[in-house]
């Protein structure tokens, strides 16, 4: 798992390169985040950007990396593909922005500059 040194120390990981310690520390951190936020979207966002950012923005922070990460986690959990940005239909390449992805149940990554959830 990816743990920054401060988080690794906080959850008892002495050797971040030791797989057993790393996974155990990472699972403790995810358990902490789930207990703290009680919302899997916020847990994914906090794991990616830090729990302080969730409080700062009152939800998923409006960072492209974090919003994209949350979308990937949720889509993976639901067994849905991530949008690729372009799609070929009947020989025509269309931009995903033209397609209403909510019909497919896919959470598309959009650059709105606003936070999600909260």
UniProtKB/TrEMBL annotation:
It comes from Tilletia caries (wheat bunt fungus). Residues 1-57 form the Transglycosylase SLT domain. It comes from the Eukaryota. This is Transglycosylase SLT domain-containing protein.
